[in-house]
Amino acid sequence: MQGLAMGRGLRREVGQRVTLRTVATALGLSVTTVSRALKEGPEVNRETIELVKRVAGELGYRPNLGGINLRTGKTHAIGIVLPFGREGEMNIVVASLIEGASRYMKARGYRTTIVPQLQADDPLATVRDIVEEGSIDGIIITHTTPQDDRVKYLLEVGMPFVTFGRTELLSVHPSIDLDHEVIGAEAARLLLDAGHHKPLLIAPSQQFTYSLQFVRGWRRTFAERHLDVPDDGIHFTTATPDNGREMAKHIAAQNTAATAAFVASEEAALGFLAGLRDAGRQAGKDFALITYGGTALPDFFNPPLSTFHYSNHAIGERLAAFLHRAIGGEDPADLREVVRAAFVDHQSQLRHA
Predict the structure, then answer these.
(1) What residues contact residue 304 under an 8 Å CB cut-off, 6+ apart?
(2) Taking the CA of residue 250 as centre, how many other CA atoms within 13 Å lie in the half-sphere pointing to its CB?
(3) What's the CA gap between 336 and 334, in Å, rounded?
(4) Longest alpha-carbon distance in the chain
(5) Distance CA 204, CA 192 (A)
(6) Is 293 strand, coil or helix?
(7) Any long-range contacts for 332-338 (C-beta under 8 Å, 24+ apart)?
(8) Whole-prediction pTM
(9) Quick check: 349 and 290 in contact, CB under 8 A?
(10) What is the C-alpha to C-alpha distance for residues 212 and 269, in angstroms, rounded to an integer?
(11) Which of helix, strand or coil describes residue 247?
(12) What is the mean pLDDT of each run of 10 residues along the chain (353 residues)?
């Protein structure tokens, strides 16, 4: 244990490349023992593993990915393709998803590359380009469509992948998703039970699978109560604050009798609140709102909004875990999960006199 204690407080010289031998010399251990400890080999005790990892981190040790790549044919990198819904603005709600995924993969020796898909970009070309570069071992994609061409392509070329969202393809593929149909049904129930006779659904673009799932759930609740969904009862909009604001102003002008809405995007809901104020109406007083999303933003809205909440960070971790397993060759049928959202009740769905 005297050799192990020597590693405490060590620092490398500026410009010095830290290797396994550097760490081994600092700790008085063999290179083989250090290598096995960093891989958490069963032949090394837990105390040694933890100390080797700590000292390696202090010294700035990084695996030689070039050598690993040559031996294994792996790049030890993954890509996350993220669509950007508007020019010049960062989509803050996905930041924690990126963090969750990249943290998980970093702990397993993988780098994470973020691939922005801009408004003018072809979604399939964006995915095809990064795959054909040969710079990643797997890919995460979001905003799936029912017959997603990206998924068809990835299945065809055999690239490991996982989607945040489902498709309606017959081929099984890894995916993590929320039960949006259940959420749509529950949102309709909450607003109808609160006394809103014709609540509105403000759904994301109908090209996306999850938007259609919201609609199916919403219609199901109305049908169970032998109610018709009005022709103007469902609206689709891009999930951005600007579009939410314009949608609220449109509804206030064209449907003055409307008293409630489920805005199925917390970013759109932020704009929707502003649009109501622009039109002289106020959420929590003469208009009821429920929203949905993966952050705590609705807690800070004015007023705070009831929301169907999930954790973007946890979803990011689960996506990465499934991708890591897909890279390892696991059966895609075992890499599918539907997560239930939690309802956070700020009573913004209630009807007020």
Answers:
(1) 298, 346, 348
(2) 13
(3) 6
(4) 79
(5) 21
(6) strand
(7) 332/172, 332/173, 332/174, 333/172, 335/162, 335/174, 335/175, 336/172, 336/174, 336/175, 336/176, 337/175, 337/176, 337/177, 338/177, 338/178, 338/179
(8) 0.79
(9) yes
(10) 19
(11) helix
(12) 44 59 88 83 89 88 57 78 69 84 95 89 92 90 96 94 97 97 98 96 96 98 96 92 94 92 96 95 92 94 95 96 96 96 95 66
Report the residue count for the chain: 353
| Separation between Cα atoms, residue 159 and residue 327, nearest integer Å | 8
Residue 192 exposure: Cα atoms within 13 Å on the Cβ side: 21
Note every long-range contact of 231-234, with CB atoms under 8 Å and residues 24 or more positions apart, other chains counting. Answer: 232/200, 233/198, 233/199, 233/200, 233/201, 234/200, 234/201, 234/203
235, β-bridge pairs: 202
Question: Which is it for the CA torsion 39, 174, 112, 296, positive or negative?
Answer: negative
Q: How far apart are CA 284 and CA 263, in angstroms?
A: 14
77: closest CA among 85, 67, 65, 86? Answer: 65
Contact between residue 201 and residue 212 where contact means Cβ atoms under 8 Å apart: no
Report H helices in the chain: 2-5, 20-27, 31-38, 46-59, 65-72, 95-106, 123-133, 149-157, 180-193, 209-224, 241-254, 266-278, 312-327
Q: Is the bond preceding residue 303 a cis peptide, omega within 30 degrees? A: yes
Residue 54, token pair as written in the block: 């700590």
Three-class SS of residue 54? Answer: helix
Residue 91: what pLDDT? Answer: 63
